[in-house]
Design a protein that fits this description.
It catalyses: N-(5-phospho-beta-D-ribosyl)anthranilate = 1-(2-carboxyphenylamino)-1-deoxy-D-ribulose 5-phosphate. By secondary structure, the protein is an alpha/beta fold. 30% of the residues lie in helices and 20% in strands. Strands 1-2-3-4-5-6-7-8 form an eight-stranded parallel beta barrel. Strands 9-10 form a two-stranded antiparallel ribbon. A hairpin with a 2-residue loop joins strand 9 and strand 10. Helix 1 runs parallel beside helix 7.
């Protein structure tokens, strides 16, 4: 049985990026959203990506960014995958000729299936907890029983830690899990021991 894929998001420095890669993370997430405590500049991101070993997917996260801002990042940083965490329509997401995943928040009353179907070209749908005013990185879980059946691969986010990720994988069977706050010592700084413990818990879920 294949191990669930892992993205460690909110990477802000080379040391944390290398710790994630060496622990076995499949991808790292770089946040280009100025209001986030985990935000990086294109210059910082370029240095981080340049230090990575091969076969680690680089993901750029945007929240309702203008198109020229996305383009500027893509011109400066070798990004593999885009992640849109706002209200971006499909037409916007596909306009950069890069593969992308669409993040949706599990807000009460929202038809997740309908929202996901509005992004038929997305490589995956990331489901995160809904907290008013916060587009992500909330550190809160949501009721995994509310997850509908999706046609795209599912990326599970929201409040995951080494203590609950095995249950999440067993219950939800996602293609991948996305971790940020659950492996931090402070916002934007990863605890390398927590990263290793999280990866071990994912491995044990197989």
């Amino acid at each position: 049985m294949m191990r669930t894929r892992v993205k460690v998001c909110g990477i802000t420095n080379i040391e944390d990026a290398l710790a994630a890669a060496h622990a076995g993370a499949d991808a790292i997430g770089l946040v280009f959203y100025a209001q986030s405590p985990r935000a990086v500049t294109a210059e910082q991101a370029a240095e981080i990506v340049a230090a990575l070993p091969p076969f680690v997917t680089t993901v750029a996260l945007f929240v309702d960014a203008p198109a020229d801002e996305v383009q500027q990042v893509l011109q400066q940083v070798p990004i593999d995958l885009l992640q849109f965490h706002g209200d971006e329509p499909s037409e916007f997401c596909v306009s950069f000729q890069r593969p992308y995943i669409k993040a949706l928040r599990m807000q009460p009353g929202i038809d997740i299936t309908r929202q996901a179907n509005m992004h038929p070209l997305a490589l995956g749908i990331l489901l995160d907890a809904w907290v008013p005013g916060l587009p992500g990185g909330t550190g809160q879980t949501f009721n995994w029983n509310d997850i509908p059946s999706l046609t795209q691969p599912l990326v599970l986010a929201g409040g995951l830690t080494a203590d609950n990720v095995q249950q999440a994988i067993t219950q939800v069977n996602p293609w991948a899990v996305d971790i940020s706050g659950g492996v931090e010592m402070s916002k934007g700084r990863k605890d390398h021991a927590k990263v290793q413990a999280f990866m071990q818990a994912v491995n044990n879920a197989v």
